[in-house]
Amino acid sequence: MNLPADLLYTKDHEWLRIEGDLGYVGVTDFAQGELGDIVFLEIETEGETLEKEEVFGTIEAVKTVSDLFMPVGGEILEVNPALGDSPDLVNKDPYGEGWMIKLRITDPVEAESLLSAEQYKELL
User: Fold this and answer.
1) Residue 124 located in a structural domain
2) HEC states along 44-99?
3) What does the angle CA 36 – CA 100 – CA 90 come to, to the nearest 5 degrees?
């Protein structure tokens, strides 16, 4: 299983990549594997400011539908446009082309409560 060391992780299987005051969020390799083939993403929160652990969208796979949770609070600046036509990018490249949202982080201190790759691996 792929767990990049430069990312932070949640117990709900989302990852966060921080670039300055911006963050990118997606689901982990473990999560996409458990979900199976991803067929649709519904993220209608672009432009909204959400708190940590609030639902920012849903991910639909052949087997199930799951909520997507904010790893930190912030304003959602962009939803990955490529996922509209190719939701399977989440399966193929969960940490790269399969990112879901770009946000402006409101409180960087919230990231300190997230898991390192090593801590996330222990959780699994």
Assistant:
1) no
2) CCCCCEECCCCEEEEEEECCCEEEEECCCCEEEEEECCHHHHCCCHHHHCCCCCCC
3) 25
> Is the residue at 57 inside a domain?
yes
17 lies in some domain: yes
**How far from chain centre, in Å, is Cα 8?**
10
The tens digit of pLDDT for each residue in 43-76 reads 999 999 999 999 999 999 998 999 999 999 999 9
Enter the DSSP assignment of 4. Answer: -
Q: Tell me whether residue 80 is in a domain.
A: yes
Number of domains in the chain: 1
**pLDDT digits 0-9 by tens, 38-49:** 999 999 999 999
State phi, psi for 60 to the nearest 5 degrees. -115, 125
* Domain of residue 47, residue span: 8-112
In angstroms, the Cα distances linking 27 to 58, 79 are 11, 14
CATH code at 53? 2.40.50.100
The span from the CA of 78 to the CA of 24, in Å, is: 9
Burial of 32 (0-12, 13-18, 19+ CB in 10 A): buried
